Model the fold of this input.
Amino acid sequence: MVGFHQARRPRQTPMTRLRRELSWPRPGGVLVSLVGAVLVFGGAMALPASEAGAPSPAPVSIPSTTPDTSQEHAEPTPAATLLASAPATTAPSSVSASGVSGATITPSAASAPLVKGAAPDSPIQKLFAGGAATPTDKALLDLANPASTLVLLNKRNPLVPLDYTPKDLVAPAIASGSGESMLLRSEAAAAAERMFAAAATQGVGITVKSSYRSYATQVGVYNGYVANKGVAAADSTSARPGFSEHQTGLALDIGDANAGTACDFTSCFAETAAGRWVAAHAAEHGFLVRYNPGQEAVTGYLPEPWHLRYVGVAVAQDMQTRGIPSYEKFVGLPDAPDYG
Done:
C-alpha cells in the first residue's frame, strides 16, 4: 500500500516544496509572519517622524496646453502690492516669475513742493499742485527769482541782486497821470492794458502815477522820505532800494482820471471810482492790491489802495476767492513788519 500511494503521488517542483514549507503553521511560515509583523510595526512608528522633520518636495510644474487661470483672483504678493501702489511717475518695470521687479522704484517728484521758497502747505502750493497756469520754465516757480512774476519782495526778502534790472521792460499803451516815464515788464504791461480797457468800458478812468523804478531812482525816492519824515516814518511808506516792488517792473501806482489829484497816494483813493473798481476787478487781470488795511504788521507798510502788483491771474484770483489779504499769507511765509 505504501508503495502504491507513493507511486500515485504527483511530482513536486522546488517552488511547490518552498511554498509548502513556508505556509502556516509550519515553522518556516511562522517565522515569515513574525518578520513581516516586525517590519510593518517599525514602519508605522517611523512615519510620523519623517513627516514632521523632512522637507516637503518642491512642486513639479507640468506643462499644459490650456491657459492657466488659477492666479486670476489670487492675493497679491508684497512685491506686486508695492508696484500697484507706486505713483504713476515711477519708471515702468517688469515683474519676473518670482514677483520681484528688476527695476528700481524711484520716489514721485510730485511729492516735493512745487513753488520754491513757499511753505509746503501754503495756498500757493495747493494752487500750482492742481495744475493752475504752471510755467514751462520751472525756475519761475521760485519766490526768490527776480525774473518770476511770483517773486516775493518785502522787508525780509530783498531782490538778488539788489540792483536787479528786468530785461523785458516795455512802455504800456495806457494813460499816464504823471510826468514819470511808464515802464513795466512785458507780461504785466499787456495785463495792465487789458485792465485799463475793461475799466474804461464801465466808465472808470484809471491813470498811471508810477511804474518801474530803477535801484538808483529808488535811492532818491527813499532818501527824500527820510529827509522829510525821518527813517521810521519813511519805512512805513517807502521801500528801501533793493526792496521795492517797483524795481521788479511788476508794480504800478494808479490814480483816478476823473477824481482830480486830491486822493493821489492817500487813503481816500479807496473811495474813488478807480479805487473801488480795482478792488473788485484787478484780480481778473492778474493784479492784486498789495497793501491792505489791517495788514500793517504783516507787510510792514501802511495801506496803499493805489499800489497794484502783478502776480498772474491764477494767483490773484485764488487769493481773492480764498479771501487772503496779503501775499505773505498766501505763500505761507512769516510776517515782515520791519527790516530783519
Notes: The chain has a mean pLDDT of 80.
